[in-house]
TrEMBL record:
GO terms for molecular function: efflux transmembrane transporter activity; porin activity. Belongs to the outer membrane factor (OMF) (TC 1.B.17) family. Residues 484-511 form a coiled coil. InterPro entries: OMP_efflux, TolC-like. The lineage of its organism: Bacteria, Pseudomonadati, Pseudomonadota, Betaproteobacteria, Burkholderiales. SUPFAM superfamilies: Outer membrane efflux proteins (OEP). The keyword Coiled coil applies. This is Outer membrane protein. Keywords: Cell outer membrane, Coiled coil, Membrane, Transmembrane, Transmembrane beta strand, Transport. It is found in: Cell outer membrane.
Amino acid sequence: MNSISTDLEAADLIHGRMTTNKLIVASANPAKWLAYASLFFVASVFAQTSPVNSSIPATVTVQANEAQDLLSAPPVVSNQSANPANAASLFAPVTKSDTPKIYTKGAPSGPTDMDLRQLWNELKLNNPQLSSLRESYLSAKATVPQINAPANPQVGLVWSGMPVNSPFALGGANTPTPQNPNGISSNNAISIAQPFQFPGKKSLASDIANTNAEALLAQSESTYLQLGAQLSTLYYTALASQKQLQVLKESVMRLEMIKNVAKARYSNNAAAYVEYLNAQVAQSSAQADQFNVERQLSVALNNINTLVGRHSREKLILRGDVRRAMNSVPTLLELEDYAETSHPSLKSSALQLEAARKGVDLAKKAYLPDFQVIGSSFTPRGPFSANNGAMFYQLELDLIIPLYFFTKEKYGVEQAQRNQAAAEAGNISNRQQIALAVNSAFASYEQAKNQTQFLKERQVPQADAAYKVGLTQYSNNGQGFNDLLTAQTQLRNLEVQLALAESNLLQAQAVLLVTSGKEPF
């Protein structure tokens, strides 16, 4: 029989502390199995009834050749694609070298180890949706200097009075002839026209464009937090699946012990063979549950790869310690204050409101006239001939004034004021929604925290004690086999519930921090 590897945690109910010991269970005949089981549970009961002898372990760890637990402390893992130094260049101007490419990568050959912080860095750098928002922000920022730039000048070239039979006689249009001794053209000219807007219009319009671009950046940061919350949920769901696999392996090991005890008692004519068969069926059921959990883990890893911009079939190993991740959470008042001042969504709505107010000022400036300056140079010659006359110059100033009873300007101001009112209402609504979301997330976090503590401190230790007592009784006198299977099943279910409760607690914690505008690490 191959040995089975796992770590079995149990609480010392008398002394209130966790103890762990290792016992190598190898191949043995039924009599030796019975001896091992009897020795272990006599020692366990003695440890619970004798406060003096606290060195006797209350748990057993069975080692074997299977994979190690993935819920160890997160190691320091290097990842070239998640280099935080690249974050400084995310909003640099687009050049030929960093022109956006297709965000689909091929599957590499080797695995990648990542914790939650590294996954968030990958999300920030490689997620296609965030990359699209960054490019949209850069595109919006590129419109600011365009709006602030002066209007293009107009250059004009005029010649006239050409002979009837020489429509393109550019060089001799003003040459004297017997029929026209004084020439024909006297108004050939070169003119330059430059339009100007009323002072303050262009700078205010560019300021509005810049404010809208910054609001777009704040929206991208809010989207980043939302995607990060989704990533955290997938991450802790995958860790919960890994923990469930560990619990099921421990259940398989416990059922293996029960099955060997039943087999040993049957060989000594002290138990029915059906007890061994029932234990074997229960063990097979636990092994079948592992297949479903492994499928759930595979789906979660594929979703994580897709979310962070990697190939879905890329090898990914998650590293993280569930208990270390359960850090203290700020109070509700602190979270609400932080969300009021730092949440990207509120920043975006505030910037949109500021742009709307500036839009009202710009609409009112539409009543002011614009200008155009025209400079002209006249000469009585052809435009491409030698100078044969005196040149003179002309300067013209034009006003572009709003006519038609200011209809366009009046409704433009009304439109801007309506936009400002809509932005103010949207800002208030957004603040209310953020405050409600923080309160709701905090309530969910408290509920998940209480449920996790109840399972960890009461239900799981009680189920573990019931399982040990049932196995001890069955090993000593062969009674209570059905009670033993029930206790083992109850212990397995509660351990799975604890793993899910810890995952739900960490998901609620991540959602709470993200809702208030923080990264969950």
